[in-house]
Structure formats: C-alpha cells, structure tokens
Design goal:
Elements: H1 2-28, H2 30-39, H3 42-55, H4 60-84, H5 88-96, H6 98-130, H7 137-158, H8 161-186, H9 190-198, H10 214-224, H11 233-240, H12 249-275, H13 284-337, H14 354-365, H15 376-400, H16 403-406, H17 413-436
Length: 438
C-alpha cells in the first residue's frame, strides 16, 4: 500500500504540474489564438481550396510566405504599441489628424458591412449543411445565419474578454484538429508536399477566358492567410491582457509566432485537401459545401462530416472574432475623434460603453440585409478593400516605426525590406481588382 501511495503521489504531482504548464501556455498565447481564429474565415477556406484544387501542392510555399508577412506586420504594430503605449490607430490619428480619421471611418463602415454579410451567409450555409432541418437551402442559410449573428452578439455583449478567449480557444481546437485529420486522410504524396514547401514555383493555370491566372491565385492565396483589418485587433487584446511596456515584447513575439504557425498549418491542410479534387470557382460558402460533397467520395461520409465541423468552427470563430473586435476599432476611433487630448490615448476600451455597444449591434444586424440579395458588386468592393488593408498597414509601419519615433525598437533594414516587398506584392493583387471594377 505504501508503494502504491509513493508511486501515485508523484504521478499526481507531475500531472498537476503538466496541467499548470498547459494553462500557463494558453494564457501566454491567448491573444495570438484569437488572431488565428479570427483571421481564418470563409474566404480563407475558399481561397485555399480553389488554389489547391487548380494549382496543387506546388504553391504550399505561398502559405508560409503569407503567414510570415502577416507576422512581420503584426509584430511591427505590437512593437509600436508596447514602446509608445499607443495603438497603431492612435499613432496615425495623433500624427496625421482628422483626414486619416475620416478615411478610416469610411473604410471601417464599408468593410464591416461587407465582411459581416459574408460571415453571416457562410455561417448559415455551413450550419445548414450540418443540420439540414429546413426544406430549402436558401431558407436554412438565412435562418441559421441570423441565429449565428445573434449568438455572436450575445457572447460579445455579455461575455468578458476571458469568456470570449475560452470560446475562441475551443473553436480553434475543433478547426485545427478536424482540418489536420482530413488532410491526413487524403494521404498526400510526401515528395510533392516537401517540394511545394521548400522549392517556390508557380504552376500555370489558364482560366476559361484564356487568361493566365497562376500568379494571381498564388498571390491571392498569400494575401488570404491570416486576415486583414482584424490584425489591428491584436493591440486591443494585449491591452486586455495587461501587456504594456517593452518587457512584454518577447512574450508577444512568441504569442504571434504560435498564432501564425497555426494559421500556416491550417492553410497547408486546406491545399492538401483540395489538391485531391477538382473545384469550379464559386462563392466562398458554396465552394465549401461542394468541397465537403466531393470529400464524401474520397474520404467517406465520416471524413466529409468531420471537415464540415472544422469548416463551421473556422467560420463561426471568425464571425465571433469580428463581432468582438470591430467595435474596438470604432470605439478607439470615436475616442480620438471626439478629443484632441493625448490623455484619451492608451486606455483600455470600455466594452460596456455606448460607442462599442452601438457598433456591436450594428455589425450584428445591418449585414443581415445582405442575405436577401446577390451582392456581386459588393463582393468586388470587399475584395478590393481587403487587398488594400495589408499594404496600408505596411506603409504605416514604415513611417511610424522609425528611430525618431520609437528609438531602439525601430525597424531594422531587413524589416523595412520585408514591408516594402509586402506593399509591392499586395498592390499587385489589389490594382487589377480595382481596374476590373470599372
């Protein structure tokens, strides 16, 4: 009996220590998990699926590069905030004044409506695919979409940051596990897998209209990794965690590295999954369902169902992340727009305050109108705006993260080179989209 106790007691101690380490790890990477969960939505699923279907495993390197570029940008805004105790928006507003504030407000409102409509629609489609209790898929999309939007509203309205973080962690766990499992079930060719990761190449892809689209889809895949405007939310989430000052820079870098590794693995898995089947270019939500239907032929009903659960978790976590984070951006704007005093900066946004809650209600309700229409033009506008976010952020960091602004934490020459490369690549993506609108 003594032997049993002496063996069991150390085991329990080791288990408790392991549990504490896991909890400490999640506390450390919490804001990073939110970035990963929010940044992967319907567009990322569809972009990865279509690129993988048409270009195969040869473009896996583009996922790694895209995740790296987003890491550099998010690390840059974090470095600025921890040094100055201002968010990137506060820095831009205080330095360049009202014109930048007004431009940002117009951009934010239009972006909110577009991304809100897309996420509500995609949530409805994914939920109907999992629980087809309505006779019509269109009815299912509308009803389930509204339900998901209102659930997101309730969680963001009543829940604390800690509650939000826990829910998002569960969603990203489902998303991560199911997509990896599905990719493993595909049994990709390992030689092609490692070649695609380590040796950059862009396969040729000819559109039905005869145009070469290999480069465009590769760059679009790169741009879709890890979100766009939601990157700014990281600054507010680390404030919620109490991170202020340069002593938290190393911790935040570990946090962000973890986030973008998770994001890259998700993107790689999506390409692996889609590379085994043929997809036509469709809307994001329909493409996901088409992908699940074709997976039914290659992986069986269980594999298809598991993928749908992961896709639903990815979409809903993105919806919840946008619902929680976009009001931060508006509340920060409103706080700065209403006052010229620097005393109004570097404050934790009041999630119970009117600016935050009014915008939360707006994002959860007004985009519902988009469910009744085919927004071909709106989708084009959203695509253009999304492609412009990243170069604008990179350009901002080139100006704000100079030595005279933040001292020893200024950009290194290599960082500036990466930011310039980011601007060039994403303008190359965005400019054709702008020209195609007219």
């Amino acid at each position: 009996m003594f032997l049993t106790i002496s063996i069991t007691l150390p085991l329990r101690i080791h288990q408790d220590e392991f549990s504490m380490k896991i909890k400490d790890l999640f506390k450390t990477i919490g804001p990073g998990l939110l970035i990963a969960a929010t940044g992967v939505g319907a567009g990322d699923l569809a972009g990865g699926a279509f690129a993988g279907s048409k270009l195969g495993l040869a473009i896996l390197w583009a996922v790694l590069l895209g995740a790296f570029l987003k890491y550099v940008i998010t690390e840059g805004l974090t470095r600025y905030q921890l040094t100055t105790e201002q968010t990137l928006l506060e820095g831009l507003f205080s330095k360049y004044g009202k014109p930048i504030e007004i431009f940002f407000l117009v951009y934010l409102v239009v972006w909110t409506f577009m991304v809100g409509s897309a996420l509500i629609s995609a949530s409805g489609v994914a939920a109907h695919a999992l629980l087809p209790i309505f006779d019509s898929a269109e009815t299912g999309k509308v009803v389930w979409g509204i339900i998901h939007s209102l659930i997101g509203l309730a969680i963001a309205w009543r829940g604390s940051y800690a509650t939000f973080e826990k829910i998002m962690s569960v969603c990203i766990g489902f998303m991560f596990a199911t997509v990896i499992y599905t990719a493993i079930m595909i049994k990709p060719n390992l030689t092609e897998l490692f070649t695609g990761l380590l040796y950059p190449s862009i396969p040729s892809y000819i559109n039905p209209d005869g145009s070469e689209q290999g480069v465009v889809w590769t760059l679009a895949l790169m741009g879709g990794v890890g979100g766009t405007l939601t990157i700014l939310s990281y600054g507010y989430w680390i404030r919620e965690k109490g991170r202020k000052g340069n002593e938290f820079l190393k911790l935040s870098r570990i946090d962000l590295a973890t986030a973008y590794v998770i994001t890259a693995i998700f993107g790689i898995c999506m390409i692996i999954i889609a590379s085994s089947i043929d997809l036509d270019k469709q809307s994001s939500s329909k493409l996901i369902i088409t992908l699940a239907d074709q997976l039914n032929n290659t992986s069986g009903s269980i594999g298809s169902s598991i993928f749908l659960v992961g896709a639903w978790a990815a979409i809903f976590s993105s919806l919840l992340g946008v619902w929680q984070s976009a009001p931060y951006l508006f509340a920060d704007f409103w706080q700065m727009f209403r006052s010229d005093s620097k005393n109004d900066m570097n404050k934790v946004i009041d999630v119970k305050g009117k600016p935050y809650r009014y915008y939360l209600v707006a994002i959860a309700t007004t985009p519902i109108l988009g469910l009744a229409y085919k927004f071909v033009f709106i989708q084009k506008v959203y695509a253009v705006m999304g492609s412009l976010v990243i170069p604008l952020l990179a350009l901002s960091l080139l100006f704000l993260n100079r030595k005279k602004e933040i001292g020893d934490n200024a950009n290194k020459p290599l960082t500036d080179a990466v930011l310039i490369l980011t601007i060039v690549l994403f303008v190359y993506i965005g400019l054709p989209k702008i020209l195609n609108m007219f």
